[in-house]
Amino acid sequence: MKQDRILIIDLGSTMNTNIAREIRALGVYTEIHPHDLTNEEVKNLQNVKGIILNGGVNRIVDGVEIDASDALYNAGVPVLSVDHKGAKPWPKTVEERQDIMKKFILEECKAEKNWNIDNFIQEQVQLIQEQVGDKKVLLALSGGVDSSVVAALLIRAIGSQLTCVHVNHGLLRKGEPEEVVQVFREEMGANLVYIDAVDRFLEKLAGVEDPEEKRKIIGNEFIYVFDEEARKLQGVDFLAQGTIYPDIIESGTKTVKAVKSHHNVGGLPEDLQFELIEPLKMLFKDEVRECGLALGLPESMVYRQPFPGPGLGVRCLGAITRDRLEAVRESDAILRDEFKKAGLEGKVWQYFTVVPDFKSVGVKNHNRSFEWPVILRAVNTVDAMTATIERVPYEVFDIITERITHEVPGVNRVLYDLTPKPTGTIEWE
Q1: All domains of the chain, ordered by start, with CATH?
Q2: Looking at the whole model, is its pTM more than 0.85?
Q3: Using an 8 Å Cβ cutoff, are 122 and 156 in contact?
Q4: Per-residue DSSP letters for 63-102?
Q5: For 151-207, how does the pLDDT look when each residue is reduced to its tens digit (9 = 90+)?
Q6: 215, 257, 406, 411: which has the fewest C-beta neighbours closer than 10 Å?
Q7: What pLDDT does residue 261 have?
Q8: What torsion do the CA atoms of 268, 269, 273, 275 make, to the nearest 10 degrees?
């Protein structure tokens, strides 16, 4: 890392991520590290200009208040102690915290504002080239933001040495498989292997109603398909993953229990024996998007909405059928199109449709109909732990309802989910 670096030492604070993001916003690179770094680990961290000991409510572990290691106190750089050993806690407002951090980081530590995405890309390209040499890299390219940005970065660094595998399991949104092929194979010249596994996945999912069982089947089948394709390739030594910084943080630290396990590809067989490449592992989500734009990816891909791993499989409620799955896909496309026209595309955090496995009586073309409802959901959130409902104008609902009931086969009603999180969850399954 050529950029100057500030270390945030986790001593039980719940503010580590906030502080890291605020320091990066100042143009200075920062990382979160555990409190017990060794002399060797500290020595291997380059360009460290200062250390922040960030205490907090979780600083008591097994009845003992943890402290930073001697290696950190003796690192020979300025140290700022917050909410630790009598030090005052961070101010509650961002403006006050930034004033403290500016004085410490820019004046006392004399760190330079040399953290930006262009520098990051340049450095990662060099690191990837050094790591890979003339060998080959494999990437599971879902079309999501993280894997797409990794693909674009690797294409810039090693070109045809990268092989991307895109598995179409039939549960993607309308136009997404085609966009992956267009952007990466046609526009960026990637070596892309496209796998049409739609029938294979839907056959495995036939008759399965339980959401967790559906997730398990989709996840396992993806692994099997990817593994089969990987074994067909010769001389691949590296596996690239779209791991980002929140994945690592959420995997837990020595003072915070894991939110979820850090595992992007998910359970690949150990005998694949790949060495990992994770070039985005120190970026936050907004930085990943900025990186994607700088690498030339289209905004439609970079600002792709959050999408569950099982895709539309958990929005086609109950046992998945092809006709109801298409109703989800088509109604979702209409919703996204009309939200874009209404100026809601960048305003609302996530919006999608759900089609349940029941029908109701209606009237279409002057005849009785017995068809599915489509449920619309649009929520706003900061951290996905809680969510509020977007108050969509009724004139927008009118257009969406008209289009869905007339353009989507098998649908005669449109409903809007008004439930915040809690008590509901963002997804239905």
Answers
A1: 5-108 (3.40.50.880), 117-302 (3.40.50.620), 321-416 (3.30.300.10)
A2: no
A3: no
A4: TEE----HHHHTSSS-EEEESSTTPPPPPSSHHHHHHHHI
A5: 999 999 999 999 999 999 999 999 999 999 999 999 999 999 999 999 999 999 999
A6: 257
A7: 38
A8: 20
C-beta separation of 308 from 142 below 8 A: no
pLDDT tens track for 133-156:
999 999 999 998 999 999 999 999
CB 164 within 8 A of CB 151: yes
User: Is the distance from CB of 28 to CB of 111 less than 8 angstroms?
Assistant: yes
366: Cβ contacts below 8 Å, ≥ 6 apart: none
**Ramachandran angles phi, psi of 339, nearest 5°:** -65, -40
C-alpha distances in angstroms, 106 versus 2, 16, 95? 17, 19, 16
Binding-site residues for ATP: 142-148
Q: Residue 420 class from Cβ within 10 Å (0-12 exposed, 13-18 middle, 19+ buried)?
A: middle
